[in-house]
Specification:
Layout lengths: L2 E4 L3 H8 L11 E4 L19 E7 L12 E6 L20 E7 L11 E4 L3 H9 L6 E6 L5 E7 L1
């Protein structure tokens, strides 16, 4: 089974880029990349030096329950800057390791699915978790800050 890595949906990126409120009802913060290290959730790429970007509180879930985490994400401020879902490792995953965690169809964490995984093993680990019928989707999150990076689904 080939995992598919999904960028932030276009409708959500467009909402934030148009100045729409984030998960906390706040307006996006506007910044310029200085010093690198800004992984864009819409392009699945690191943003280049000097590029405009947004910081927003994002909740990558459809509903609300005790497991629907909210946290900061970075997003290119450029209109239309989006990636297509991809089967290869997204270029913005440049840290040594990430949290990989499985969720049920009702958006609840499936205990025993979460672990810190070396970046070069993410595809293999995601494929193994997606073999389990109770796993509806996965999240890749920062191993140091728990920030949401992308959603992973079956290909």
């Amino acid at each position: 089974m080939q995992p598919v890595f999904h960028p932030l949906p276009a409708s959500i990126a467009d909402h934030y880029r148009a100045g729409g409120a984030d998960a906390y009802g706040l307006l996006p913060e506007h910044r310029l990349v200085t010093g690198g290290g800004v992984p864009c959730r819409a392009t699945l790429r690191p943003l280049p030096e000097g590029a405009p970007y947004l910081i927003v509180a994002h909740r990558p879930f459809e509903g609300l329950n005790p497991y629907t985490e909210t946290g900061p994400i970075f997003l290119s401020a450029e209109p239309g800057a989006l990636a297509e879902p991809m089967t290869g490792l997204p270029p913005f995953l440049t840290s040594p390791a990430y949290i990989l965690r499985g969720y049920s169809a009702d958006e609840r964490i499936l205990y025993g699915t979460g672990s810190v995984v070396a970046t070069d093993r993410l595809i293999e680990a995601a494929a193994a978790l997606l073999q389990r019928p109770e796993v509806a989707f996965l999240h890749i999150r920062s191993a140091s800050n728990n920030c949401f990076h992308c959603r992973v689904e079956r290909g």
